[in-house]
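User: Can you fold this complex?
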Amino acid sequence: MLNVTTKRSEFLKEEYYSYTHKSGLPVYVFPKQLSTTYALFATRYGSIDSKFKLEGDKDFTVVPDGIAHYLEHKLFENPNGEDTFSRYAKYGASANAYTGNTMTAYLFSCTSNFKESLEILLDFVSTPYFTPETVEKEQGIIAQEIRMYDDHPFRRLYHMMLEAMYEKHNVRINVAGTVESISHITADILYECYRVFYNLSNMMLIVCGDVTVDEVNEVCDKVLKEQAPASIIREYPEEKAEVYKKRDEYAMQVAKPLFAIGVKDVDISDDPYMRMKKSATADILNDVLFGKAGDFFNKLYEEGLISGSLDAGYSICKSFAYNAMFGESSDPDEVFARFKACVEDAKKNGLCREDFERSKRALYAAMIKWFDSTDDIANNFLQFKLDDGDLLDYADILGGVTYEDVTALLHNAFKEEFYSLAIVKPLDTEVK
Amino acid sequence: MALIKKKIADGVSLNYLETDKFKTGYMSVNFIAPLDSATAAKNALIPSILLRGSVKYPNMAQINKKLDYLYAASLSSRCEKRGEIQIFGLTASMIDPAYTIDGENLPLEVTDMLADILFCPVTDGEAFNAAYTESEKTNLIDAINAKINNKAYYARMRCIEEMCKNERYGISETGTPEEVAACTAETVYAQYKYALKNYPVEIFFVGSCDIDALADKLTSLFDSIARTPMAIAETEIIKKAEAVKRIDEDMPVNQGKLNIGFRAGASIKDADYPAVMMFNEIFGGGVTSKLFMNVREKMSLCYYCSSAPDAPKGLIIVSSGIEVANREIAEKAIFDQLDAVKRGDFNEEEYESAKLGLINSYRELADSARGLEMWYLGRLLNGVPGDPDSVAASIERVTRDEIITAANRVSLDTVYFLNGTLKGEGEDA
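Assistant: Here's the predicted assembly.
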């Protein structure tokens, strides 16, 4: 018998099952009565993991920037020369993969032949096959992906904000690397990264849809071999609390300046529950201060200082955390000044209790909307699990955040020395 | 899940897709206008101005506070083109009443709010509020100018614009910055009044609600308007391209964008359109298509190279991002793949994969309230009946010969190249 745990949220009227497959792989099955079944096979390995070793290894391995993403591309090749996408296509499934700062995920969605598709997913990710020729072939493709992002103003802005906030932390590294850095990638280094990070104990399988634990387990039994757990030692550079640069700008082909206001946060708890609580607290604080119902947004909008939307959000994981606000403005420095004034005013006069209650209620209700697609559920679930959190706990945690929690975060996290302003501005020749 | 249609007023219908599978209900009110440069900018401004404030909720802060109170319901503006039709209006989403504290009837409460915003704007005599109008004009002009920010999107749009220069389809759904600038609080308000009276209106609700109560409410709202609805505009379909147009545009960016516009030889209205869908899937639709497998995987020329059909207008547009120096090689590679499909040079596996992939996407459609609404609205605008299952069944019946016939009807119209003039990696940020 499998040792399956059930977790349920009465508020959300959702539940999921979890167990560890005998191979060592943690498995999560989230039942959902929809036509589409969505599966994610992910590893805790992303662009920030550039210096590492396994327990027992003599030396650390240092790898070129962008290798986790490169590996993601290369795993799609199979020893018999068959292309992974073509394998899926025989069963009508739609497949993809993505790499982030701390993770790499392989996924498919399907409306039939679930077991066949899951077998392909587990099989190709557990079968690395690289040759100098196949590695070489990918250089051109990924170089074009990098060039595409280089021309993408929001990608540029986001990356510039991270580079301004962090002096040494690997979150500065572009997920795809650079055209130069990826030219150093070889089949041997790819195998080494695979050996360290694609151990099943460092991975997880998430399936959301109209499926049972037994169906998932049957396929795991068929494909996965038992594996001794690995203990990975990752080394990251030390990072100071203050931002590296207060302001940075870059000129490229855009119509109007785009800005990002980053608030660096190095006060990160080791307890995943506390990280979730901080995230929920920050969500409420962002909504109270910068939300669409608030004064800050409405004044800027009415004065024409921002065009369209203003997005503020908080990200946290074990390794780094920051708050970020993105928008478009003819005068980003003025928006930044207003941002600082808004924060200081709230510190001095206190947050409005009524706004706090309204934001909390709205965010709590908005969580319901996260549970309408197997794609959203699986991906949100993954984001929480990667950081040892839990999607279903989040609603309760949000419901438990107090006015005092939000006020404390405002005072502790929102300080001038943690702010960076990044601007993507139009090329000089384009300025009117 | 069947589509239930109820008449609300002359040329106003409520389309109800009843389902209890979603926790979020989705609603839209769509005005169906002919795509016309005399009205495009004004129509595009209407929903944005309406969302600035109404009699009951006079500014955005009030509107958004009320939406928060309605359990994080949302209201958004919509403006898009489908063939030579401009759709504009409002969309809304709300959680299912089962998740509210007191079982509030959110579909009806959100409809009340939507109605207030739609029918009771802040006005100044026979004009919209001047400040709201001017500010939304600026925002719309900014949004039009910002289309250049996303180079892939921009290049595709420019390709279609050049291709359909002499057709109504070449008109932007937002109008031009000049047309927006020329709008006034008076002229947009007059157009709003005109729209309420004359444009067909299609209202959708996807989810579960008391449909009779919703229909009654909507009927009473449209009751006071003496409607004289026009017919839904027809889209001109050019089945075969004439001389090939070549457009090159320089831009200081790293990557070149090659976009190729074809006339498909058929549109969504044609009975044999499923063969065009199958052709496109094999040619460049997805990750097992000829464009992906050859231009990307075999030749390593690009990260993306794909083709997408524009069903109402009967176009197929290839989009790719390449090294500028590889332009000719890439262009030839794309045409080679088209020629291969024309010759029938595709195997059983490619044929089956295309079929299964398309059928899967129709089945997945059933899982998205917004996706369903968009899909049914598209069918309705073109007067083609059917549901995702019946269209999937028609895909199932397409034969190899029909695909080859469809491929041979495809004709090259426009080659658009966005020529990146930057050198090096641009890593100096």
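Chain B has 15 helices and eleven strands. Residues 79 and 200 of chain B are 15 Å apart (CA to CA).
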